[in-house]
Amino acid sequence: MPKRTDIHRVLVIGSGPIVIGQACEFDYSGTQALKALKSEGLEVVLVNSNPATIMTDPELADRTYVEPLTADALEKVIEKERPDALLPTVGGQTALNLAVQLDELGVLKKYDVALIGAQIPAIKVAEDRLLFKNAMKEIGVDMPKSGVVKSLDEALALVEDTGFPAIIRPSFTMGGVGGGIAYNLEEFKEICSRGLSLSPVHEVLVEESVIGWKEFELEVMRDGADNFVVICSIENVDPMGVHTGDSITVAPALTLTDKEYQRMRDAARRIIRRVGVETGGSNIQFAVNPADGRMTVIEMNPRVSRSSALASKATGFPIAKIAAKLALGYRLDEIPNDITRLTPASFEPTIDYVVVKIPRWNFEKFPQADRTLTTQMKSVGEVMAIGRTFKEAFLKGVRSLEMGKEGLLFRRPDPPDDRAGAEDEQEEEDALLRRRLVVPTDRRMWALFRALDKGWSVERIHELTRIDPWFLDQFASLVELRRTAEMIGLRDMSHDLMRTLKRAGFGDQELAHILGADASAIRERRIEMGLVPAFKRIDTCAAEFESFTPYMYSSFEESCEADPTGTPKVIILGSGPNRIGQGIEFDYCCCHAVFGFHKESFETIMVNCNPETVSTDYDTADRLYFEPLTFEDVMAIIERERQGNPDVSCVVQFGGQTPLKLALGLQDAGVKILGTSPDSIDLAEDRQRFAQLLWDLGIPQPASGTATSKAEAREVASRVGFPVVVRPSYVLGGRNMAIVYDVATLDRYMATAVDVSHDRPILIDRFLEHAKEIDVDCVADATGAVIVGGIMEHIEEAGIHSGDSSCVVPPPYVPEKHLATIRDYSRRIARALKVVGLMNTQYAIKDDTVYVLEVNPRASRTVPYLAKAMGVPLAQIAARVMAGRTLESLGLVEDLTPTGVFVKSPVFPFVRFPGVDTILGPEMKSTGEVMGGAGSFGMAFAKAMLGVGQRLPESGAVCVSVNNDDKAEVLPIARELAALGFNIVGTRGTAAYLRTHGIDASVVYKVNEGRPSLADEIVNRKIDMVINTPLGRESFFDDKAVRRAAMMTGVPCITTITGAAAAVQAIRALRSEGLDVRALQDYHSEVKAETA
Amino acid sequence: MIAVLALEDGTWYRGMSAGAPGETSGEVVFNTSMTGYQEVLTDPSYAGQIVTMTAPQIGNYGVAGADQESGAPKVAGFVMRDPSPISSNWRAQGTLRDYLVHHGIVAIGDIDTRVLTRKLRSGGVMRGVIATGSVDPEALVERARAIPHMEGSDLVKAVTCAEPYDFTTTLADAVTEASFGVPPIKRASKPLKVAAYDYGMKLNILRRLVAHGCEVRVFPATTPASEVLAWQPDGVFLSNGPGDPAAVTYAVDNIRTLVDTGVPMFGICLGHQLLALALGAKTYKLKFGHRGANHPVKQLDSGAIEITSQNHGFAVDPESLPETARVTHLNLYDGTVEGLRHVVKPVYSVQYHPEASPGPHDADYLFTQFIEEMERR
Predict the structure, then answer these.
(1) In the structure, what pLDDT confidence band is assigned to residue A1092 with cuts at 50, 70 and 90?
(2) What is the ipTM of this complex?
(3) Mind listing the domains of chain B with CATH numbers?
(4) Which of A230, A257, A495 to substitute to test the interface with B, most B CBs within 10 Å?
(5) A389 with B112: Cβ contact below 8 A
(6) pLDDT tier for residue A1041 given thresholds of 50, 70 and 90
(7) Exposed site from A277, A834, A885, B134, fewest CB < 10 Å?
């Protein structure tokens, strides 16, 4: 069945901003799909609100709309572009939901758009619990027993069938409130009664619990001729009860017999056929009772997913690409396997290594959040590691997490303690440890190793964690090896033991810690012993056929297949696992670095350990090493590559802090670092040296100092004056950054500050209150030419982390004289630092003076957004400049200006973390961003708000509740809202102030004043927008309830005056202009810059 | 205990003993299945072969009686990357290591199985020796070179049953749990008598025949056709088995006689090769064979793709097929013949393993087809 001939133009929907549960894996799958569709000669139209993606690069689709992912915006795009077909399966749940919405609204029918990849009935069967349950019953596939009941009597009858433990979920309560797990009849009665009363429809779902069962996933594909293949089986190390995104997982499944596995495969085949996924990939989750092997299906996703990205990276089989081709009508056997070239895609990959995925959490950003892992995903990123054995892959994965000391699994056992009372303490610690094993959290794996270290048996730990004994035995043997190593010590270590340790995956750093030696000593010793890793290839077929794709991983094995070429090469170090502050933006930059060096005829080599990314696609760089980003692992690659050609250089500018942390070590080891020198990077990071530089240049900066103790901190603070911004050195995303108003808080900060040392002091800057903040990205070449890529004005004022602030280009409210100053400063700083490549500078404007807050001579979070706004791939230009090109030769002689107005806005994960305040501060909390583009600031901001899911009201009631400082400033805003016909509501003080100034404001109770309070009114949908600035520093948390209520109900809640002003402009634009859509290609055709 | 694997080309690898102590020799081959090591170990087609598993973690789920494809392991030796010290599965009755030791199977672990596989892929299968304890690798290489070649070896006689026996339903009941766990597409409407030639038959073939409603009598490989016909079977089944088909001349002769009678016949693997020889075709040795559970096979009539379980070192030469037979299935990896059918007689065969075990169940329809051929008569 060859390609369909009736499709010429395809619309692809992306997944929007990065949020927990839907991250850059959809950039990877979307990018693959776009490439596949284009290679088939189709015209491709893309809609995705996320500018930080490779998929929204204007070269990838024919028409790229960075527009809000809403049904009305999509209808506008469809109306304009008239696609023949819509592919909704590569943009996560967002795209599927939108496809259903467009169908329900009749848009698809109206414009005669065919769905390809998944049809509406299939999407519905997979989504709707009841439809799915019935479908499974029809094909004889077991599911956990369940039923919906409306009374306690019904519930009691039902639980006789479902058994204990029983899961109770009330219908229609937010975030599963009122649900629970009952282990006995008494608990069951209690939870059911509560659930029935809390549920607005007095209904609860009672379900058989499969918590503690083994959890598996199959990634499967089906073509239009009903051919079916399993691409990968995945086993969760954490049993049922923990979301698979929060579980440590392993591929292939390791504890299933062939009989069990084939039964699962058979079920998967029946499921995908019954659900009706005609073409493409699906993910199916199963639970298996470890006691008797009973297998039940949990759910299926009729689309590519996070797991399919993992499966693609784990096997070398590009699921999204193949899915796109299948959607066009191809059959699996008509598509070649890229890696072996000679064999078709209609096969099941077999792998001769083990893949381990470990999630990366960011709970340190949300101290009040509950760290318990449940069925709702909480991790923000993940690492994947590949080894020849589970142990090797697991330890590589742990070191890929980049958690510093916290990441070390092995602790020296405590010396015997015979003090009085020691036994009690011991008992207490044991009780705590037991709890940490029973209740899964992000730290459970570390507790588990602690327990093994203390000599707890595999059986005991299995009882507590329900983790399969096979995995526990593997962990136990690692602990055993740790003990042997420690006992023998480095001096007496034999070749055999060192080989065993390295083959088990122990890193030099980990061994250094265990042996109490220096990592360099370990390294020296093992190299002396001839113990260097070999590189093996990922080839989909366990070496049965020759492979042509240099996709590699290291292992301490005998034979190396790296086969380095004789071409001069550049190694681009990636950004590792996604985390808040270091996300997809840096992967985007790394990809563009690859493209840039490729254009300059270098062989490009990518090193990264994040399976969700485009950078770890095997066809992004010439060669891919899927490896941890540590000195040991990177050096091994460099040394191996040098054997092909000694001209190997490294690039550290694009991947955020991860590669930067390696820069000096690599340079000391004689590795050539391209672009801005590590010393300049260090200079910009070193407070004192940098302050001196600005002083010499005559550029103003807020007074500052560094401190390693309380006393020093007090001294600095009294010199620079409160308030001050405090933060540790070398962090990204404002980790542990705070604004401090008084000595007591400062003391507390210093007392709790982590990792303070002489090399890494706490940085203390004067905080400029109510200043306007500006971000600038520029590119400089070796001749000293500097191009300003964009001047971005923050919508929130200084004090809110730049990553959490909305910003806009071109800057609408900065006077030209300041812009000129900013350009001038940027050029001078870039030249002084001898920047070759990218540089990001943050400025503050206060009292008519421009201050430099911070300089980072590297790729920044805003680079992709600017690239989309300007139509110039800044990161790629930077790479080419680093390769020796001049900006002039690349056609860049003038600072860039956009032809429209582009607003970038952040999205936050608060909805996942009940109890966490949604207020913004200097510590970054957003997970992703969207861009809105238009001809005016108001419209661009309105679109950005729509993009983040905040539909600004065009009429209704606005509640204003601001602190005293802000009252005067909120007045014109309230006045304008009133003029636009909004009802103005205020809390007592604000309302009184507004009324005395002629605005008819009614009063609403504050949360602690009485009911119905403002929070109630929000929940009751009486309020359509809230303007709520925090009531001074003392009462930072007073209005938490209001902000949380607004978030849960999706009512826009604006917490800054500048944000409120922008919102008013946006509302006005929405009412006067209406939503319009425009492709990036249309904006960019007006940009003259020649970058060929 | 240290162990060494030595190959005829002079290379040798040091690893750790993972089974019984001692020395063994055979043709070294690799299998790419990720599950089903016990089915592989006990598949009689592996007689005379040292099997290398490309999947690195072997033994994790232990061993269970129901996972055996014959009474005991049949491989000459076993090579693994990382044998599991424990077994973890509700069905497990013991660890892999104890099982290997109990059955006297010499095995080696901690070997870079990937480099070995690459060698076999590029150089073809090789003769090799595994020995445990302190051994002289060079001497092992010499011994590997002295092993007889697989070509021309009749290994069937060593694994076939001694006497005919009925594979009774009671026996089948005992192993139902070990079968697919899924009902057959169709069962025979009344019990059909199937005479099965045992050239080294896997148990799951018998289980599937019984599950489809057959009464099976198993005959030794050398049984004359007349004796089989005397039992008045509704159909004759030709089983899988080890070694070079061309060396099993007595089987070829009997099959030729049976084809002429017009009795429905179905052959798997070695049975398929023997049928081809009986029809006048030729077989040849593949460079490194097909052993795994992921090979795509295309049914030429429908165009459908099956993912198949494979285990063979020889194949049928399509050029040599007489006009009385046509190719029905092709391997999409290398275009080799995977199935054939007589153009008039109800006689057909496949090179791969529709009984799976280990491997996918995609080709179970071939058993249904056999039922239908027999019922049509």
Answers:
(1) very low
(2) 0.97
(3) 2-145 (3.50.30.20), 156-376 (3.40.50.880)
(4) A257
(5) no
(6) confident
(7) B134
